[in-house]
Amino acid sequence: MSCIDSLATPLKKTRQQLLYLIYGNQDVYRREAKFSILTVLSQAKNGQLPAIRILTDRPQDYAGWPVDTVFLDEATLTRWQGTNGYHHRRKACAIAAGMQWAEKTLFVDTDTLFTDHPSRLLDAIGQDCSVMDRFEYDWKDVHQRSDYLKLARDLSAYGVTPENGFKLYNSGLCGVTENDLDLFEESISMIDQCTVGGFEIHTIEQIALSYALRERRVVEARKYVYHYFAEKRFFHAMQTYFFSQHGETFSQRLVDLCRDVPRVKPFPSAWQRLKIKWKLRNQSGALRKVGRDLLYGSAAPDDPYYSACRHEWWECASREILRWDESRQKKLLSQSRWPKQLPRPDKPEDEKVIMRYLKKRVFTPR
């Protein structure tokens, strides 16, 4: 199978491993991977942790870190993407290639924080039991959505109907054994069939894997990790601040310091949220959402990681405003002072900062 041929760096086989895939030179994803690894290391008890392996085209980025790297050259990345231009195919290939190095493998998306020891998940992996990030929906509940119609036609060739469908899981984490290569042969074959002629959804990889796991027991990982795929901007802001303060050179001190970084999306205090809800009691719909996001950003607690996310709350508001028509945008933002439609933030100095930010985002040509 092409996914497991000719990798440049063979590794010694181990009992358990965590497996990451990261390629390209974007700083944000390198920081994601490193911070995820720090959260793994922060769970160590008496030094007991599985091996951590990274499949990457930039192994130099992890020099000095307690990980093994496997070099991916451009030819391998191109082969793993396949002929249909679906780059998430590489993930299925990475798992298929990596499972040969351990009896049990837990593949981890880089946007994952460990909130418990990884052994809680590795112990659950067995001959007839796999681990996935979380259950999302049943095929019967989505097969008629417009963006799923092509996939429904493709899956019908496998005998999949609304009546005999399967559970669909997020594959942000995927735990398998060394004997599970057939699952990935099946899912990669399905990926290739379902991406012929293009594709309208980008989760075909996890749908194909869910189909391959349809007769297995699946344990959800969500109790032991936080996969922040829907809230990336907030965590990217905190990670950028963390590494700007402490650098990326590995040390035990870096592991200890990572514990100070929130493991959830940072919200104002419960009291502040209640105050904001009261202030917005007369608003509804999109304007209420805009007001909430603006005030949440302004009400950030006196903590550097929460402060790093202030602009991300304001960004949420600006994205909502960008969906409006031009006349509605101008009605809100063309005033020289704080919009009368919205309650004022508790910090008066934030009024000008917020308005300057929104006007730049909304009115700057793109």
Please summarize what this structure is.
With 366 residues, the protein is α/β, with parallel strands linked by helices. The protein has helices at residues 27-41, 74-81, 89-98, 119-122, 139-142, 149-156, 181-194, 204-212, 232-246, 252-258, 270-279, 285-298, 304-307, 310-322, 326-333, 350-363; strands spanning 14-22, 51-56, 68-71, 102-108, 112-114, 129-138, 167-177, 217-220, 225-227.
Oligomer: single chain
What is the correct CATH architecture of the largest domain?
Alpha-Beta Complex
Strand order of the largest sheet: 3-2-1-4-7-6-8
Relative helix content: 40-55%
Strand content: 15-25%
Q: How would a crystallographer describe the biggest sheet?
A: 7 strands, mixed
CATH topology of the largest domain: Spore Coat Polysaccharide Biosynthesis Protein SpsA, Chain A
Secondary-structure-based class equals alpha/beta
The separation of the N and C termini measures: 45 Å
Number of helices: 16
CATH class (first level) name of the largest domain: Alpha Beta
Low-confidence stretches: none
Average pLDDT for all residues? 93
Written as H for each helix and E for each strand, in order along the chain, the element string is EHEEHHEEHEHHEHHEEHHHHHHHH
Radius of gyration: 23 Å
CATH superfamily of the largest domain: Spore Coat Polysaccharide Biosynthesis Protein SpsA, Chain A
Q: What is the number of beta strands?
A: 9
Number of domains: 2
Overall, the morphology is: globular
Protein name: Nucleotide-diphospho-sugar transferase domain-containing protein
